[in-house]
């Protein structure tokens, strides 16, 4: 490809994608509201920009064939705080990608778009929206917009419902939700290089023996995860407290996000849960 644009390039996950994406295109243009990384790759340029600024995003999209959109606030906040980066920012990315003639947007969606669904229900990629937070609602908004842009304008999209993406599983819940950094890269690479995707939803999850969701309906995407959280089960399970089956955080795909008040950090709740485990 000639050019890939990566938003959220300085974030925890976006920073893991810079090098692999740089190998898939002549030019990688990375962008973030934060300042540029200390060192850029040989074929990488960087533009500091606010996702809510349509003119700025449109300018950096020129000539892009593929957009990997990982820029956002990655946690629950008040609706007002999320409005610019997560809601308006998603619109500006799709609108600017369309105006630039891009072929596809690969989007960092989240399990929290369906976070109030039951964990034990065995969901595939067709599970309907059931957000657990304003953050999850922003992912529903972007997924619905992505589908509309595909159906009305022909702009492809792959929406990755990322679960628990960390270097190692952090708690017992992660035995079914974990996405390794290596599998994250494999998932994004597959989403970029698959010839035709239309509008596709994919679960961002590794090959966990206890996975609560399934990508069996989208084999055409060519995503083949290699890592399995079960390798950490012996360490995680003995340390865990006896689960309470009446606890909605235990029963819901969104975990603690399902029970924290709207606007209150779900990431902080997950950290507390991991510390207790």
Automatic annotation (TrEMBL):
Its EC number is 5.1.3.2. Signal peptide: none annotated. The keyword Oxidoreductase applies. Keywords: Isomerase, NAD, Oxidoreductase. Residues 237-257 are annotated as: Disordered. SUPFAM superfamilies: NAD(P)-binding Rossmann-fold domains (SSF51735). Pfam families: Epimerase. Residues 4-163 form the NAD-dependent epimerase/dehydratase domain. GO terms for molecular function: oxidoreductase activity; UDP-glucose 4-epimerase activity. Belongs to the NAD(P)-dependent epimerase/dehydratase family. This is UDP-glucose 4-epimerase.
């Amino acid at each position: 490809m000639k050019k890939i644009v990566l938003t959220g390039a300085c974030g925890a996950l976006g920073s893991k994608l810079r090098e692999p994406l740089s190998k898939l295109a002549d030019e990688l243009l990375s962008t973030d509201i934060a300042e540029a990384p200390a060192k850029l790759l040989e074929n990488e340029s960087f533009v500091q920009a606010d996702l809510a600024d349509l003119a700025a995003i449109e300018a950096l999209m020129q000539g892009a064939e593929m957009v990997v959109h990982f820029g956002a606030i990655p946690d629950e906040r008040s609706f007002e705080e999320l409005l610019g980066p997560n809601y308006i920012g998603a619109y500006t990315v799709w609108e600017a990608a369309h105006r630039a003639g891009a072929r596809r947007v690969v989007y960092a969606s989240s399990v929290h778009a369906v976070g109030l669904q039951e964990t034990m229900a065995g969901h595939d990629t067709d599970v309907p929206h059931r957000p657990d937070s304003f953050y999850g609602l922003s992912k529903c908004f972007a997924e619905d917009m992505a589908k509309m842009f595909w159906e009305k304008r022909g702009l492809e999209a792959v929406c990755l419902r990322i679960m628990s993406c960390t270097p190692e599983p952090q708690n017992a819940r992660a035995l079914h939700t974990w996405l390794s950094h290596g599998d994250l890269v494999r998932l994004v690479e597959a989403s970029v290089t698959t010839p035709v995707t239309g509008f596709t939803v994919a679960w961002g999850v590794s090959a966990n023996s206890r996975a609560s969701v399934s990508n069996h309906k989208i084999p055409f995407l060519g995503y083949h995860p290699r890592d399995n959280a079960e390798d950490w089960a012996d360490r995680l399970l003995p340390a865990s407290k006896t689960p309470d089956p009446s606890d909605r955080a235990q029963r819901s795909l969104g975990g603690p996000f399902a029970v924290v008040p709207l606007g209150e950090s779900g990431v902080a709740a997950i950290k507390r849960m991991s510390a207790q485990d």
